[in-house]
Amino acid sequence: MITQLIEYNDGDTVLEGYAAYEESAIQKPLVLVGHDWSGRGEFACKAAERVAGLGYVGFALDMYGKGIVGGASDAERNAALMGPFAADRALLRRRVRAALVAGRNIPQVKATQVAAMGYCFGGMCALELARSGADILGVVSIHGIFTPGDVANGEIRARVLCLHGHDDPMVPPEQVLALQREMTEAGVDWQVHSYGGTMHAFTHPLANDPGFGAVYSATAERRAYQSLENFLTEIFARGT
Hints:
The chain is 36% helix and 26% strand.
């Protein structure tokens, strides 16, 4: 497997993504990987490598800026990093679209076959990329944030898959229903998989804070990654 750091820009902000792919003479579909609220750290990079192992180019994008990260246990700093993007969805969409351009420019990428996935805050980023009308095949939110902002949506072209813990206190059932209505009214091919007895951050092995509502679940993780793999296989086969 080949991995590399790739610098790109959103205006004056220098960003640094992490690309992973298996060596091949054939261009591969691209999967953007959005990080959680702590920034593009090891977890996001390992997710990009997981995607590469499925036969795609994984590109862990950077929302905050080169070298800017929080920490798994530093909720105050993480909230401060994520807050401006949650409040300003136009900024969020511009930043994630910069990653889309950078990812499509990777020589090993087949630029017409692109999907985006993300964890927690990264799930919000993936959904906002779809809401922006981006010309991509699909997006996947993994224990992501569903609430939309107040910026107008474009035509949602992507298929949508949301992998959600039913007991996630950050996304209560009424927000799940609201997303389903939103996607239905927009004519989207959507799926929501809700895992019973499962909280936020269920794919992160270090999540163990029931009071905060974030707890790892090996069962939900296994089911989610199987659904992710099936979804990517389906959308890239249709997009050939």
